[in-house]
Predict the structure.
Amino acid sequence: MQYEKKAKELRAEILKMLYACQSGHPGGSLSCVEMLMALYYEVMKVDPKNPGNPDRDRFVFSKGHGCPTLYAILADLGYFPKEDLADLRQINSHLQGHPDCKKTPGVDMNTGSLGQGASLAMGLALAAKHAKKDYKVYTVLGDGECQEGLVWEAAMAAAHYKLDNLVFMLDHNGLQIDGSNDEVMGLGDIMKKFDAFGFACFQVDGHDIAAITEALKAPVSGKPKFICCETVKGKGVSFMENQFGWHGSPMNKEQFEKALSEQEV
Amino acid sequence: MGKSLRVAYGEALAKLGAKNDKVVVLDADLAHATQTCLFKDAYPDRHFNMGIAEANMMCAAAGFAHTGFIPFASTFALFGAGRAFEQIRNSICYTNCNVKFGFSHSGLSVGEDGGSHQSIEDIALMREMPNMTVLVPCDPAEMEKAVMAAAEIDGPVYIRVARPVCEDITAEDTPFVPGKANVMKEGSDVCLISCGLMIPKALEAAKLLEAEGISTAVVNMHTIKPIDRDIILKMTKTCKAIVTAEEHSVIGGLGSAVAEVMAGHAGAKLGMVGIQDKFGKSGKPDELFEAYGLTAANMAAVAKGLLS
């Protein structure tokens, strides 16, 4: 698969969705495209024809506001028709403003209330161990989200129960709604923090699918895995990159056309 | 004298565990207080101590429910319904997933621990959420039936558990159908609707009223949600006064739920006995019930006030 082309196609879909609904979160959707691509195109054992398979790998999108990226990939894989993407956030659409497992085929958990996805993923992984199932549970966290105490409650439990079937991936773009992490509430040395909580820690370029995949596949036993993915908020759209203002702002027509033109292969 | 509702809860869990291997129990470092230790003794592999982290326990329970287990999560009512409210809302009720909550140390009857630990808001918080069922058993026999019934319901269920030893009021063969109140005594002037530890006080209040020639019905509203509308509307028509009584704030609890049904219907006047927008405090349970007006005498007085 030509991932460079695929990434541009996905970013174009994300931009179209967000322009159509004139709401949503462009910056944090664009930053995690390659992270979700590595999961869905390289690593996770899932079957779009059988989304409810009890033995499938699970993905919990803890930073649920980035869901346009997930929806674009699920549509690309055939979980539902691509035309549905145009209805994001519209009344009667199955594509909610934040992921909803009751409505959207392929979505494993409801998320969006920050911190809960990390905890839910830990719960799924604990249940898998208890049921002696082999599937793995992946979650993508935002960096601002790590300010939520629940993330650390979940991290403590994940290490306590030796959940080596659980992977926390951090979309480390350094920005949140009100500014940079450092301005709002600094994360400190996030690698050292997860290391201290008992995780096997990896740090990769969050836009390098091969590097992310390698970290995802690296064998770890007896402890959960943390992958710090260094990313750029708004990645792939020149005027959005590294701008916290694009966390949750709608594009006007001119901005949309420029952003879309930058996705041409 | 019977035993405490929390011991009855723990024993019922252990019985349920024998019948259904999908049942798992989560606790937050309170297994001896909530009595889930009785389940742990029988099924140590199916009991998960999540540490003092109630919010995380709720999401963990959701993880179990989403993979086909029937998790019972237990802690004190204040830390379950209160601290973890939003995890219960978004991670459990929003997806209608099959988590049960047995929260002990509800109400003033916690006693000496005082206001910081006395949950007087849990019924309001838990019944507010779509998809939730809310059960308030009144004695050990009813507790066991509530636990078994909760396991049969496909969706979230809250069971309110009180700490003190309580009287046996119902019999083994008393029916328990969630959503269908039990009329413990018929009457035509006053209807006392209560739940949990206020049931024996309602029966006592009925005696006081009957002694003065006031015909008094007593309803055990063991299910706060879905509430038994039919019995409330029937009593609204046939009685002159309805008095609710609960070990909970009158804001948002049983009384409010009854008022929501009565609104727009002509008939009986409504009075509420419960905690009047105040926090609790330290004391013995009986002293606290007296201090906050959770007594048979007060119920009878409120009823007579409505009749006069």
Observations:
- Chain A has one domain: 3-261.
- The first helix of chain A runs from residue 3 to 21.
- Strands of chain A lie at 58-60, 137-142, 166-172, 175-176, 179-180, 200-205, 225-230.
